[in-house]
Batch of 3 targets.
Target 1
Amino acid sequence: MPGRVEIRNIRKAYGSFLALDDVSLDIAPGEFLTLLGPSGSGKTTLLNVLAGFVRPDSGSITIDGAEFLLLPPHKRNLGMVFQNYALFPHMSVRRNVGYPLRLRGVSGAELDRRVEEALGLVQMAHLADRGVNALSGGQRQRVALARAIVFEPSILLMDEPLSALDKKLREHMQLELKRLHDRLGTTTVYVTHDQREALTLSDRIAVVNGGKIVQLGTPDEIYDRPKNKFVADFIGETRFLPVETGASGALLYGRPLRTRDDWKGATGEKPWLVIRPERLRWKGDESQTANRIEAETTDIIYQGDSYLITVRMPDGAELDLRRGPDLGGKDLPERGQPIQLWLDREHTILVADKS
Amino acid sequence: MTMVLNHPGIADADHNADALKRQGSRERRVLASLTLPGAILIFLVLILPIGWLFWLSFFGPSGEPTLENYTRMLKPIYVRTFISTFEVAGLVTLVCVLLGYPVAYLLSQLSERTAGLLMIFVVLPFWTSVLVRTYAWLVLLQRTGLVNTWLIDAGVISTPLPLVHNMLGTVIGMVHVMLPFLILPLYASMRAIDSVYMRAAANCGATPSQAFRQVFLPMSLPGLAAGVALVFVLCLGFFVTPALLGGGRVAMWAMQIANNISVYGNWGAASALGVVLLVVTGIILYVFKRLFRVDSFEGVR
Ligand SMILES: Nc1ncnc2c1ncn2[C@@H]1O[C@H](COP(=O)(O)OP(=O)(O)O)[C@@H](O)[C@H]1O
Ligand SMILES: [Mg+2]
């Protein structure tokens, strides 16, 4: 199966600013890989290096073993969905989608059939003769996707393709993208700053920060085993509590903390406990001292599908915790009352500020 | 128990309706009075003179009502002038497009700062009067002018070239005056073409020249049309440059108008010529607008 991408030591500087700092990444054929990171982290730059729109200072990209970096953009044969779609305003939907085929010398009935097929895949066949300015955001998105897949590229690039859509449509399109990828099996490199979108769509996620890939892994690896505070913070609704390390192990407010992995931070690095509110247990063994948090409830806010409960830690730090209406058989705490929370060992993760 | 949602003082749905309506109409009156000075000015300097022109065109030299001013235009001399006016305007517009498109394209591809600096050279001619510029061309192009002297001194030619007092001189002079009118709207519309479209074309597999012809050029057409319409229409009424550089060999509609007044003192005839020019110009602008509506991208195949 074609579509194996090997990115090696790509470096790109703008003046003294390193937009890509020695990025290396292997993408398996058929994989859906997401570059996830905050704005300005270099995701678009990396995608544009792949597409040939940005010339890096050094590095190598091979696709199916062949060097790719020196090819001009129009010879790269990659499908790309641009952030604002970049549909040609002087062409109808049909002509937009047919454009890559016509450039490849496809014409007549063959052209019509393949355009029809691509539009059918994105459920836009009925609007084929519209002008693109007469389409809604979601429809443009679909046409842009059809134009990117119509010539059956072995690799598909997408730069925040859903960011201009409203939340509901975005979530719907995520599922459609996933279904389309399952069906076509095209190697896909997807860029987003939305962690939930990345978790939903990806086979693997590369978390990007400051021009570097800080962690690469499957969605559950990224979520459950964040490598550092940045990744833990960027993914999920995360809270952090300061942890002391002594001779007897980790301590949280003086109580022992049994962690999944031993703390291996360098000297001088401060460990933080990663709190994922949904992993906290609101019921547990009151005689157990390890992995128990004692706090005071300061606020309870009803939010329909959940409660937002604010608790104050012994050191005065406040945590907002979201809980579903079912508290595991426990009554809702009351404001001002003490509260006890338990953490399972496998979900007790320490991270350092940097790694 | 029934719930009363109305405010206790509110008796019916028409509450405040009259006051709100009065407020609305007062606002409209204020807005109208703000536009009044402008409207009066337009009426005084534009509508009134044109109406006067139109009125005059139906009277003969001794004040008798007549259609003769219009029927006269069917004479060969007028028809020839009419055609030659369009030829000159068309030729000048064509040369402006050929020279101006590459310049506008270059400027649109440069950084905004560099383009701004170079733009000074495009608009520089605006800072001098047309008359001065036209005489300058005369100095350059006449038999003993700079160009001919240089060419003879350099041994390229032995007798002076007829560069002025003919169609060539007229077109050179008019293109010089008209070029900024083409470049400015074209440049603005090219600037507005996001470079992402060229990337998208390349990504689809278009070579740079294919991307230019199939994506950039069509997308720049509305701006080109605006510039072409502007230049063409301005050329139709052009007087000074063809009169000075044409040497009597280039007949323009505007020169016929001037003749009718300065030579024959026939205001009615001159007015009729003016009315025809105005109407023709209006028709051309309308056709251009219909052909190249910016939103006509919709549904184009
Ligand atoms: N042409 C450029 N010149 C200078 N700096 C640039 C240029 N393109 C991108 N950058 C910088 O590189 C960094 C990464 O940009 P980008 O890849 O667009 O980030 P992302 O897509 O992750 O938001 C940003 O800080 C941006 O300011
Ligand atoms: Mg980006």
Target 2
Amino acid sequence: MDNGMTTFHASRFGLLALILLFVTGPVPVLVALQEADDDAPLTRREFEKFLEDYRQFQGEYRQVKQENESLRQELAELKAGISDASAVDSAASAASMELRLDQFASQQRKSILEDMREELRDVTEPLMPGLLNFALGGTGVVTYQDRDGVDSTFGAVFAPILMWKPTDRILVETQIEFGLSGEDTEVGLSQFQVSYLLNDYVTIGAGKFLTPFGNFWERWHPAWVNKLPVMPLVYERGLIGETGLGVQARGGFGIGDSKFNYAAYYVNGPNFRDSSISSAGKLGFNNFRDNNNNKAFGGRIGYLPIPELELGYSFLTGRVGSSGSSSSGVDMFAHGIDFSYAREFQAIKGRLDLRAEAVWTDTDRVVFTGPFDPFTFDNKRNGWFVQAAYRPTLSSFMLGEGIELKNMEFVARYDQLRESGPGTRGADHNQMTLGLDYWIRPNIVWKAAYMRDDVRGDKDSDGFVMQFAFGL
Amino acid sequence: MNTKAIAVLAFAGAAVLSAAAGGCQKTQSSTEVVMDSEGSMATVASTGDDNLRAGALLWSQNCARCHNLRNPRERSDRQWDIIVHHMRVRGNLTAEEHRLILAFLQASN
């Protein structure tokens, strides 16, 4: 062999290999890098692999179908060839065979589909890592109010809830409220709770959570849930606050056919107001840096003898006076009962929803002093409401082009409030509210309501309220 | 006409318009959701899966207690996982209700 030739060949080959390496070298490295990165978007290769698998499944599915078809044909031929004497027997066994074949085929189909679904999920889920642990809730509201004695006004609030579920047992809910007041936009943390599913019967939570007293704050207050555009008097007038800052334990369990549920909480609790005549004796619930070393304790027990009916009893008690002040020894006790019943009835072609609550609060007697004459009073505030709503869900009546009666809901509520002391707008306050709702979706609603207000010894505040509300 | 009346009329007008628009879309009023759910309940019943049937019943009994029934098709499997957890905490649902209702929603969306 010519030595020079070999050298030439060898070096030419070497050069070629070098160029090739230079050009293609990074590819395996890149591929390896991409494979190492879980968050990377789907590569063409992965997608083609998925397509290939999908085609394979399709092929398999066709094959099974074909086999099934030919078995069926054989069966038909067999059936045809059977003599009259054994017809009854064989027809029966042929029928059962056919049934078994059908079952087999549908099982095959199902398992192939399930495999495909799994495969698809493996491909799509990595495309949005992190996002899978979040969900959105919350509400948006626009209100127009025109009530006697105050200037009419529009108002708007948007309060989204971000839910985050990082593990099977943990749920974090955060609600930020954007509101408008005077000339300003107000931003508030209306809820923030971390909860942990301890076991089947106990969930513990910590943070700023809706008060589990009665039903209203926890269950009925979001604007797309509340069937009227106004709150019940007892809650509007602040007998019990919307949220508490602290810890809670809660859960539900069944005993036989009935169910029980409970919530127990330990929070900063309300604080006592004594700085002015108009607020004397009232409680403030935004107690984010506790005014004393004593926490408030409360709880609720709910009982559902049947799924449609719930009866509840709640209480809340604690020291409300500020430490170091003249009212430092003042305690409060509140308790209440609640009722809810909701069911659809054929006879009235619709759904009936009844809700009622009563609340009693009692705060220790204090002698108020200040730049006014000293005074005292029995510091009790009580109230109740009943609400009935009817929606003709089973009616197919059209009110007009595209407007269905079944999307309308008729609501009536009666409220009563009894307050003692000078810090109240009147001892005796009754209110009747009639409302009409139109549900565009289960979570989007137009509401209109007329209120008749009756305050003894003060001006009534009758009026109209209209509202558009949605829940995310 | 005073401005108050204009505001009221504007609000009412918008309500009627959107109600009509919502109606025209012919999608999911709560009854239709219920009918939908009856549909899926029928499908569920025909699968002969006892758990799914129990889940459908619990869903219709529990999830309409505080607010209108929400359409199962509104959310993905994972979203329902988070939301039913939220509702369990909020409404003190039992562990069994949680499990069966979630399975039903995930099979019906």
Target 3
Amino acid sequence: MLIKKAADIKASEVTPKELFLKRRQFIAAAGVTAAAVASNGFGLLGDDENVAAQNPAAQKFPNLKKSPFSTDEKLNSYRDVTTYNNFYEFGTDKADPGKYAGTLKPRPWTVVVEGQCAKPGSYNIEDIMKWAPIEERIYRLRCVEAWSMVIPWNGYPMSEFLKRFEPTSKAKYVQFKTLVDTKQMPGQTEPALQWPYVEGLRMDEAMHPLTLVGLGLYGEVMPNQNGAPIRLVVPWKYGFKSIKSIVRVSFVENEPLNTWKQQQSSEYGFYANVNPQVDHPRWSQGSERRLGEFFRRKTLPFNGYGDQVASLYAGMDLRKYY
Amino acid sequence: MFKPIVWVLCLAPLVYLIYSLYQDLGVNPIETFTNTTGIWTLRLIMITLAITPLRWLTGINQLVNYRRLIGLFAFFYASIHFITYVVTTFFVGGFSNFDASGLAADLTTRPYIVAGFTAFVLMIPLAITSTAGWIRRLGGKKWNWLHRLIYITAMAAVLHYYWKVSIKLVPVNPRNYAILVAILLAFRIWRHFAKRAASEV
Ligand code: HEM
């Protein structure tokens, strides 16, 4: 392993060094691979790659509350998190959002709340950000495409958000919608998906303490390409459930039809819980590539959050409700 | 005569790929490597298939001298592509843990992998029989027949790409390759009937 002092690196130097280190390690790893001597997956991430936020212009969160729900696994770099995104509103290539999301204007921003609740209305993002203390939650993110990352999210529990609107007993599900605006989201001129992007959760899933209102990552407000200014983060479900750039929240009685299910219901369901037992029709979900690692690793049921969430699905056939 | 040039041109994409990963691995270098070797396999198959029509169009018969070499390079890229996929997908956690049943399941049940694997496997007899000795042993007629397997490889390869990228996402690139294969194969069908009509007169 290469060991390097992190302390004396200037922010401006970090990226090239990081690349250099990564490259060296990758080549070393590939060499060892060729020799076929390794017995464990070797991490390709540099030890000091978890350097903090790299957008000096972005607003920072001053006092982040730590959370017992955070994992202590190695973080993916800020670059990994902000340049490898599925956000078709900016194009279908994973590099597109990082390149083109500059057109999104996350301020001013209002979220409309409607449906089965006592306090519907329009709410301003600046107010929403003050409704609860901002926490750091380091979660695994498992994409349905069988890759994963570890991301230090910032936000607060979704339950704190939803409770304010006093949902009625008729509110069985909560539905979220992404902004539609072809000027801000040029990818929406293509019929890659049906716009707006729609997602939903069962009320008990939405109120679960792991479910987060995502307002930032790496200690700064949410980068545009990651779903600024407000998104959902549900760590035990495939990434597509965690809808980005939310403008509308609706409390509803019936299960919402989420975008990917509408797109291809044989491949994507409403629940989308991470499940190594239920394969995607086109690929296995039994293993995943943690970005930065050479070998794949086993995928865990509910993305490793089974202890906290498995009870939500007691008695349900998860092959049927995938 | 131009063989060294063909060698350089065919190796250039691999050299460039390795060089650019050396410059910057990017976020998912394994995906980059697999996809790039895959697309170059496909391109080289297309070039191999284009030689006969080009010869007919231009009258440059020497083009055929390079067909075998380019075809072998297509097989070379396909092999790298396949090996990368096996090593980086089915050794879970390290070299001590090979998921053979996972590989077997992938190769036999997943449509896009089945298509890719079909395309690859059908190239193996073509690569083996590409030597002068085999051409002699089989005789030109049989050899030509055998090497028509490349038509199936081309169709399976496009299907593989198409299914990989998903059918619903308006996959422009796979569609262009599908059109190209259709044109290249249509040329052969047309020529077949044109020849027959000519011989009947
Ligand atoms: C003639 C043979 C083949 C051709 C022409 C071919 C072509 C391609 C192409 C063009 C891609 C890129 C798709 C993209 O850019 O998104 C690709 C991806 C892929 N191919 Fe192949 N392929 C062939 C054989 C195979 C075989 C035999 C396998 C495995 C059994 C395979 C497994 C894969 C996988 C897993 C990917 C996705 C890589 C990733 O996203 O990480 N291919 N192939």
